[in-house]
DNA sequence: CGCTGCCTTGATCTTCTTCAAAACGTGTGG
DNA sequence: CCACACGTTTTGAAGAAGATCAAGGCAGCG
């Protein structure tokens, strides 16, 4: 039996991923900001989390929904995006296991400003915002970790602002590929494969351009030998060339 | 003696602003994240802060400097910006009294990614990053407040990303004016005056465009009666019109 | 009064978007 | 196993938006 698919991507399960009960505790232990908690503390925290599974493309919450929960990715990949009044999508981030999203803020300012969507079959753990804030109050080490993560994210967002303000479409696409490779890249025969079904439209949403421009840039990069790409997948063959594109000019 | 200046802006002192010693404690009390601390705790915190004064245009730190201090604006206005490899400036934020900037992260990843510059005569309080982290560990309520502020900033940064990705230059300038008015606007005869010496180049840095385009948009807005503007100043006369520009199309 | 640095305005050119149509890869159902 | 249908990708050509280049005007200040 030969395989005619050309995608080097690993195929994902079709059913919504559910984390096994015993796996949950292990996942929470590995989440960066709970790392310093004792086993008994983690156990208490664990009881406050509930678990949800999502199929590829399924929405976890929509911009404008009541924001009263915080989520932690247990398995899969989640994208955070915004829609303009005109309906254009802008992708803000792709989250992988261990990262959190959703509402951190106290009740009051209570609408999600963005939308969270599962990119592949995923499992997330979720806690009420109020409950999480109590954990922060009780365990300062967790709070400090959360501050660190937020600082990291703010820095990344500022970097996006800079790119969008001052770079050409070619540079922005190169930068997006560089970031994706760092976060989701896996060494394969084709190169640094980005483990994600990634269309030209997705790239355009991330780089602030159009599908057509993204396609043109990708063709150009492939012709120059920087990447290898096909329908819904990309692998980086020359990361340094992409980095130079972003930095030097 | 008649005044021939046309600027409606209040003139700033030329010497670097120094906060009087007794004023320092009062300022720290009013800083949002120390609000819940007792008088004695604040006193202890106060002793860890040192004070710096800056003249307009003076740099507080430069991107690439060793990042080991956190700053709190006591008086004045501080701008946070980044420079592209090509030297183009991108303004990320304008900070007013009570807001913090600088390094929050643990020592290790230790370079400021951005540059901080005084826009007007300013006074800032500063603490070592390590000392501030100890405060966070000791006073969870402070940590939670910091998390909230970071969440707010991240949301604002994401909004900038959205604007830059999906809006025209006209919309981006309108959006920048809207934000500045909300943060720095003061009701005067000319309208909602933005209390800041603000050149066309500054606006361009904030909106991700060029001086010339910023100038054209400002002329257009003035012709349409939305704003009143001159050399280094702007006042908003019709905020709703600007908001509609951003939201509707 | 004249200098300096901002601001404005016009003309040109580049970049990117838009519109359109064809080519291709994938999964489906014969 | 093959052929069809769908969504993705590519490519072209025309158009618009904004950057760039260049010059002149004006405010503020000595």
Write the element-wise H/E pattern of chain A from the N-terminal end onward: HHEEEEEEEEHHHEEHHEEH
Oligomeric description of these chains = homodimer
Q: Kindly name the structural category of chain A.
A: alpha+beta
Strand order of the largest sheet of chain A: 1-8-3-6
Write a concise synopsis of the structure shown.
Two copies of one chain form a homodimer. Chain A has 249 residues and is an alpha+beta fold.
What is this structure's SSE topology?
The structure is a homodimer of 249-residue chains.
Chain A: H1 21-30, H2 39-48, E1 50-54, E2 59-61, E3 69-75, E4 78-83, E5 89-95, E6 100-102, E7 115-118, E8 122-128, H3 129-138, H4 140-166, H5 169-184, E9 185-188, E10 191-194, H6 200-207, H7 211-223, E11 227-230, E12 233-236, H8 239-247
Antiparallel strand pairs in A: 1-8, 2-7, 3-6, 3-8, 4-5, 4-7, 9-10, 10-12, 11-12
Helix pairs in contact in A: 1-2, 3-4, 5-6, 5-8, 6-7
Chain A binds a DNA duplex (30 and 30 nucleotides) through helix 7.
Structural notes for this entry:
In chain A, helix 1 packs across helix 2, helix 5 crosses helix 6 (200-207) and helix 5 (169-184) crosses helix 8 (239-247). Chain A has 249 residues and is α+β, with helices and mostly antiparallel strands. In chain A, strand 11 and strand 12 (233-236) form a beta hairpin. Chain A has helices spanning 21-30, 39-48, 129-138, 140-166, 169-184, 200-207, 211-223, 239-247; strands at residues 50-54, 59-61, 69-75, 78-83, 89-95, 100-102, 115-118, 122-128, 185-188, 191-194, 227-230, 233-236. Helices cover 41% and strands 23% of the residues of chain A. Chain A has a 4-stranded antiparallel beta sheet. A 4-stranded antiparallel beta sheet of chain A has the order 2-7-4-5. In chain A, strands 9-10-12-11 form a 4-stranded antiparallel beta sheet. The termini of chain A are far apart. The first copy, chain A, is globular, with a radius of gyration of 19 Å. Chain A contains 8 helices and 12 strands. The mean pLDDT of chain A is 91. The A-B interface holds A 82, 84-86, 88, 90, 92, 104-106, 113-114, 133, 136-141, 143-144, 146-148, 150-155, 157-162, 164-167, 205, 208, 247-249 and B 82, 84-86, 88, 90, 92, 104-106, 113-114, 133, 136-141, 143-144, 146-148, 150-155, 157-162, 164-167, 205, 208, 247-249. The structure holds a DNA duplex (30 and 30 nucleotides).
